[in-house]
Amino acid sequence: MASLAALAGFVVGALAVMVVRQNVGQRRTMTPVDDVEPGALPHGVASVLAVLPSSAVVLDKEDRVLRASSAARAFGLVRGDHLMAAELLALARQVRRDGEIRESEIEVAGHKFGQESTNFAVRVAPLGSYGQVLVLAEDQTEHRRVEAVRRDFVANVSHELKTPVGALSLLAETIQDAADDPEAVTRFAGRMQHEAARLTYLVQDLITLSRIQGAEPIPTPGPVPIDEAVHEAIDRCNTTAAAKDITLVAGGAEGLQVWGDDELLVTALRNLIDNAVAYSPEHTRVVVSARAAGAHIESVEISVSDQGIGIPESAQERIFERFFRVDAARSRATGGTGLGLAIVKHVAAAHNGAVTVWSKEGSGSTFTLRLPAFGGMAVAVPSTTIPQEAAQ
């Protein structure tokens, strides 16, 4: 989408230049050149510049700014009647000398909060017969960021897929060599099942993430009972928790509802619970609780708390990034894909909510999903332990 937006900007800019030059040509055939004053804009130029989405600047023959769009001033390209970017000035002077349209890319020191620099695709064209020059600059910063994210994502996916695929290939060769040893075949076949399951989880997470990260609306939203979503997520995690003798506890308020997609919310909760189980020692417990927030139940908060190893403060800002792992070796040992928390973040965003984390090393972590409420009243109930035997 960013590429299409950039292309559309250039098309609009090119059309603007054509319209302006056509207007100038028409005036030359209809009226004397002297009718246009050296310091004035040609007829119709101001109207065209007013509708351009990109940054637009018109310079006179002495490099003074005759007209600048609000975007050009907001980005700091223009101050007063001066064009501040030296590269743009150099391009404008070259265009004024030979009358040739030029295109280029420049980087300007950032003028947005938290942004070090801004990348522009620029187009410079002659305008009129008095040395005037039109400068169009399209902000490409977001486009560049998206491209960088895409490259990183492809590289990360390739790396993550390479590990289980390589393991499956090696195990298949090992089984072939050990065809006369039934015990070895059984052992390696079990390892192949583990790697195949890991590959399946990764593909499923990639499909889920691609489904929700496009900022598309939820296809069939409806009221989602939080009680049912919590119990369904716990049921899906019971087997993993039972293997480590970790008790899953549900508590908080009953009767709460949110508006959204029940399967997506169950997926987000399952990822949080799986994460809590994976990073908790044996014989501990994970608590999932819901509560109403706001005087009139404006939102619902669902928290997943564990007694695990905790997350270093330096890593807490990055844990919702795709494929980011605090401890890569431990995550791969537990079969994690590195996408679980990224999916949780996007599910929360798709429901106009948010996810936050509190954590202290050695004291565990609490992840909280905050979602807009939909009707219902909260009734406080005691915590209940979900029987693990039901999943075995």
From TrEMBL:
**Which ranges form a coiled coil?**
none
Broad class of where this protein is predominantly found? membrane
Q: What class of enzyme is it?
A: transferase
Q: Which GO terms describe its molecular function?
A: ATP binding; phosphoprotein phosphatase activity; phosphorelay sensor kinase activity
Keywords carried by this UniProt record = ATP-binding, Cell membrane, Kinase, Membrane, Nucleotide-binding, Phosphoprotein, Transferase, Two-component regulatory system
Write the Enzyme Commission number(s) for this entry. 2.7.13.3
Q: Name one GO cellular component term.
A: plasma membrane
| Pfam families named among the record's database cross-references | HATPase_c, HisKA
- In this protein, which residues make up the domain named Histidine kinase? 156-375
Give compartment(s). Cell membrane
Catalysed reaction equations from the record: ATP + protein L-histidine = ADP + protein N-phospho-L-histidine
Q: Which domain of life is it from?
A: Bacteria
Please cite one Gene Ontology biological process associated with this protein. cellular response to phosphate starvation
Q: What is the protein name stated in its UniProt record?
A: Sensor-like histidine kinase SenX3
